[in-house]
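Hi there,

I know you've been waiting on this one. I reran it after we fixed the sequence typo, so this is the corrected version. Both the input and the resulting structure follow.
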Amino acid sequence: MTTARPITHYGETVLHRPTAPVTRFDAELADLVEVMFASMYAAQGCGLAANQIGVDRQVFVYDCTDADGKAYKGHVVNPELHLPEGADRGLVEEDEGCLSVPGQTAPMARPGWASVTGVDKDGRPVTVEGTGQLARCLQHEWDHLQGRVYVDRLPAKRRKQVLTAANLPTARPS
């Protein structure tokens, strides 16, 4: 049985810097993906980036549905995010939360469609695209790997309210 790791919270340095690309595709990476799924499920999440369990690597896992209710589950290593541009962005505002900011949500506008390309734990090419919760999850987890937590996208006053309510520091570490 794979053991879940604790979730890192806003204010912990590993969440606030870009993660390192994966260069070795081996048993250690496969184990990390398993631990990430276990940690995500233990925390009752639908997505998890490696830095959310303290690991400085470009990997995320997901298990969520698209706008039509179709379920998607997988992982992406070294992802690249692709979003619609210009008038096609189709922003959708919904409450968004994060395991690293427990118990809090805030309205967040994001494009209603997103795609991620990368590789899997064995180095094989992967493309994931979706709408609804899946699109939001792909963007949210990619943000984590860039050193950004969703509250960083909020206006300063709202960010402070959300972080204070979660009993977390209101400033990013320097």
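Quick highlight: Strands lie at 47-49, 59-65, 71-82, 91-98, 101-111, 113-119, 125-131.

Best,
R. S.
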